Amino acid sequence: MAAAGGGEIDDVLAPGLKVLFCGINPGLYSGATGLHFARPGNRFWPALHASGFTPRRFRPEEQRELLDLGLGITNLASRTTARADELSRDELQRGALVLTEKLARHRPRWLAVVGITAFRTAFGRPKATVGPQAEPIAETRVWVLPNPSGLNAHWTPTALGGEFRRLRVASEAEDHSQ
């Protein structure tokens, strides 16, 4: 896995998605497999299912099937690292510029950033909290979710699923109002 450091993995992205989930950056396990949120202890896939975004718990190798559900995955920083805190402020801010370009080009309805601290740093929004954000990015509504990493233990699986569910409900309410 050490050889996976510094590598990149491909986005799961298409125009007009309902929600584009944005991780901080791929971990070494994801870099080694080429799959998002691939480490077995990562709680992204269970939270996605618990929230009702997916009809069953997907495995990382099924990530491309998210597109059929109007969902996608990208990252703030593309470089793989053992821990997100290995990324510099400049790297996160450069990633925010690249992400903003992706949003302008692909126009998802929602951006869901999984990691409040990285979001605050990348977009210069130090007072941001978990949940919907007042300001869109490139005309895309923004929701900040807790980081699903197992290292973020103060968010229980139940609470994490509940926060993902709040986003799903908001995105579906928007669908019905159009």
From TrEMBL:
One of its GO terms (biological process) is base-excision repair, AP site formation. GO terms for molecular function: pyrimidine-specific mismatch base pair DNA N-glycosylase activity; uracil DNA N-glycosylase activity. It holds the Pfam family UDG. Residues 10-173 form the Uracil-DNA glycosylase-like domain. InterPro entries: MUG/TDG (IPR015637), Uracil-DNA_glycosylase-like (IPR005122), Uracil-DNA_glycosylase-like_sf (IPR036895). Keywords: DNA damage, DNA repair, Hydrolase. NCBIfam families: PRK10201.1. This is Mismatch-specific DNA-glycosylase. It comes from Amycolatopsis albispora.
